[in-house]
Amino acid sequence: MGTSGWRYASWRGDFYPKGLVQRRELEHLATRMNSVELNGSFYSLQRPESYDRWRDATPAGFRFAVKGGRYITHMAGPDKLTAGIENFFASGVTRLGDRLGPILWQFPTRRRFDPAQLEAFCAALPRSYDGRRLRHALEPRHESFADPACTHILNRHRIALVASDGAREWPTLFMDRATDATAGLVYVRLHGPHELYHGGYSQKQLAHWASVVRELATRGERKTVRDTYVYFDNDADGRAPFDALALAELMAR
């Protein structure tokens, strides 16, 4: 349970204690929750020493979900897909070591479901790198992905379909209830209840998502509990960390 990113000016003097130096913000966040999305990697390749520093700022058991680069998901053509993915992982992602959680891939809202394109994308994602196992999650944002063929492709490649609350800007997609969740993990992103990145979730809305997460985590014939990652991205008004803590409390009951 955590937030999408951690470096926000509006959190200072509120979620972060007044006077806390910026370089210790991640360390503070890691005392309150057990995971965070690393989203700077979406915008540009990060330095290996940055991954080292983030790893060392967090305790054992903490997990980073690392957001795949937008060059790969938004810009690169099929002929540059493999090279783009290789460059992304070569930048030092696996230096997070045992703090490394799933890799998140976010498709743009304009991207429609194309079975051949999705198959090629999934097949290009590595299952391990530098000796470390990798797990992947996909957040499509177009209604055309609500297609059993999408579920079939993701299941076959063991890639998780993200349940994404986008304030009705895009559909919230779920796996077919008759099908085990892909990749053995559940991934949920909550971007805002009424406006993207703004506002806070009410107690009633948080209770709803607690119920959804519990159901997703035990879906399938075996009813085994899967690794579950939930991130709040409603950071513009500073509500994300408080909503994450509130949902974690509800889930613990």
UniProtKB/TrEMBL annotation:
SUPFAM superfamilies named in the record: TM1631-like
Domain of life: Bacteria
N-terminal signal peptide: none
Protein name: DUF72 domain-containing protein
Organism of derivation: Gryllotalpicola protaetiae
